[in-house]
Request: fold
Amino acid sequence: MLIIPSKYAWHMCGRYALAASQEEIITQFEINSLSEKAVRSPLPVDWNIAPTKSVYLIKGTSGDRSLDIASWGLIAPWSKSREEASRSQSMAINARVETVHEKPTFRQAFKTKRCLIPATGYYEWATELGQYPRKQPIFITSDEDRLLAFTGIYSFWRDPSNLESGENEDPATLMKQSVAIITRDAVGELAKVHNRMPLFLPRDRWDRWLDVDTPEQELKGLLDVSDPDSHLRFWPVESRVNSIRNNGRELILPIDMGESETLF
Reply:
């Protein structure tokens, strides 16, 4: 039987899809440059992105916007080993907008390292609030035929245990970049699917969000968004997405709920 891995099961937005090439991301987000990692190791199309996978993120303001790669799940800055870092990531794939500015794991990144995360759409598992059976997978995407832009934060972490051990390893390779998606209360019909949703900023707020010099008080105002679901549509999909082994466009194909009873 296919199941959602337990350590991710309680997270909102624990899976998403990005079915776009670098060229498409560059065009839609007006990217001006690529990081060395993005040039060297472009990411493949992925219909089932899970925590700790490598993902794209966008930094910088208009005219100086760059595309980079990070690991999904913010590494706690006090992690003392790669094992601790990995464990902390699975607990920090999402940051709540209500507390992101004060939680120890997130607050420094919120102040200085803000980003956007491109996505074709994301998956949610229905609660008992709406019309769908509990744990029914739902795919949410844009109704504008454009990529979504999750609001996010990122950070860098260097493994101190390896540095102290004197291992013959280039310190630069020990530096790991990680990222988290900011979430908010769901609204409208989405609130009947799940009580949380990713935070989407209007396009005209992107530059101020990404600008490292934007004051914290202004940031809080930027994150207050009305009608955050106005550009979204969603539908039920097969439970194949529950397993990280499955991938492909078929994961987002809508199903007829009258026929889906056999999936459970």
Observations:
- Residues 1-10, 259-264 have pLDDT under 50 and may be disordered.
- The domain at 6-263 is CATH 3.90.1680.10 (hypothetical protein yedk fold).
- The radius of gyration is 18 Å.
- The chain has one domain: 6-263.
